[in-house]
Amino acid sequence: MANPFQFTGHITLGLFAEIGRLAVFAGRVNGAAFTPRWYGGEILRQMVRIGFYSLPVVGLSAVFIGAALALNIYEGGSRYGAEQFVPNIVVLGISRELGAVITGLMLAGRVSAGIAAEIGAMRVTEQIDALETLSASRYRYLYAPRFLAAVFTLPLLVVAANIIGVMGGWLVSVYGLGFDSTVYLRNTIDFVTREDILVGLIKAVLFGGIIAIMGCYQGDRSQAGATGVGRAATLSMVGAAVLVLAFNYVLSTLFVEIGL
Fold first, then answer.
1. Where are the domains of the chain?
2. Of 65, 113, 194, 218, which one has the fewest beta carbons inside 10 Å?
3. Omega before 123 cis (within 30°)?
C-alpha cells in the first residue's frame, strides 16, 4: 500500500507544477498579445468565430436565464409581499453576475474546447513544428490573436446577454405575471447603475482571457492521436469553466470590499 503522505505530496507537487506551467504559458501569450507585431486579419477572423458565431447560443441562454430568474424571484418575493422588486433584482443579478458568468460558461464549452481541438490537431500533425521551423512564433501567430479576440468580444457578448436576459425577465413578468410593461422598464432603468454594468464588463475581459488561454494551453500540450485531441478539448472546457466560476467569486468579493 502506498504511503498516503507520499501520495498527497506527489499530487500537491504535480498541481503546483501544472499551475506554474500554465502561468508561464499565460505570461508568454500576454507578452505576444500586447507587443508588436500583430496579425490584424487573423484577429478579426477569430473575433468573428468567437463573437459573432457565439451570439445565438449566448442569446438563447440569456433569455431563458432571465425568464427563470424572474419567475423564481416573483415566487420568493410573493411570500413576503415583495413582488414589486422583481425588475430590480433581475437587472442587478444579470448585470453583475449572471450575464458574465453564463456567457463565460457557454464560451468555455464552445470556444475553449474548439480552440483546444484546433490547436491540438495542429500539434499532432506537426503543423506547429513546421511553423516554428519557418521562424514564426506560435505564441504571436496562433495564440495571441485568439486571446485578443476573446478579450475584445466577450464584453460585447456580455452586453448583449444583459439586454436579452433583462428582456427575458420582462417577457415573463409582463405576459405571465401581470406586471405593467412601462413600470417594469422604468424600474429596471432607474435601478441599474454604471457600476453594475462596469462590474460585469470587467469580469468579461478576464473571462475572455481565461477561455482563450485554457484552450491554447491544452491544445499546445495535446498528445498524439484523436484521443489526445479529444482529451485536450475536454480538459480545456472543464478548466475554463472552473476558473470562470472561481475568478467570478474572487472578483465579486473584491468588488464588494472596494464598494463597486
1. 25-258
2. 194
3. no
